[in-house]
Amino acid sequence: MRKVFILALALPLMAMQCNKKKSDCNGSICTEIFAAVNVTVTDKSGNNVDLQDYYTINIATGDTLRNNNGTWPEGAYTVLDDSYVSKMYNKQLQFRFIGRLNNSTVVDETYTISADCCHISKVAGKDTIVID
């Protein structure tokens, strides 16, 4: 009888854990930090490359994300930042960072990025991309 009682209490709790949704983030206390995943693009000599156009694509949805805030730190491009966290609460997604120069795609790199209720973080992907 005791095992049945414990099981009866445990099953609803386990089900709630498996069904976490965005609403689980209500009441989360987040830091003031604004997280971003950045990449530096250089030539073979180590000089920063000024891309004429760059953007990120959410592979699952096809969303194209443009960050027009310039490069920060200098020479670094934002792959993704916390402004997207609300679209990926408690998930891990893949993104493609695309960079264009002289009407040609010179960068096409895949990044795996995760999010909790507050911030994103890079799971996999290059910190520096060297182009010819």
Notes on the structure:
This protein has one helix at residues 2-18, and strands at 36-43, 53-58, 64-65, 76-81, 92-101, 104-115, 120-124, 128-131. The chain is mainly β and 132 residues long. It has one domain. The strands form 2 sheets. Strands 3-2-5-6-7 form a 5-stranded antiparallel sheet, with no helix packed on it. 14% of the residues are buried.
Give the termini distance in whole angstroms: 71 Å
State the total count of DSSP E strands.
Answer: 8
The average pLDDT is: 83
Task: Please estimate the helix content.
Answer: 10-25%
β-strand percent reads: 35-45%
**What would you report as the Rg, rounded to the nearest angstrom?**
20 Å
Principal-axis shape:
elongated
Give the neighbour order of strands across the main sheet. 3-2-5-6-7
Secondary-structure class: mainly beta
**Discrete helix count:** 1
Number of domains: 1
Largest sheet: 5 strands, antiparallel
Poorly predicted regions are 2-20
Order of helices and strands: HEEEEEEEE
Concise account of the structure shown:
With 132 residues, the protein is mainly beta. It has one helix and eight strands; from the N terminus they run H-E-E-E-E-E-E-E-E. The chain has one domain (34-131).
Helix and strand topology:
Layout: H1 2-18, E1 36-43, E2 53-58, E3 64-65, E4 76-81, E5 92-101, E6 104-115, E7 120-124, E8 128-131
Parallel strand pairs: 1-8
Antiparallel strand pairs: 1-4, 2-3, 2-5, 5-6, 6-7
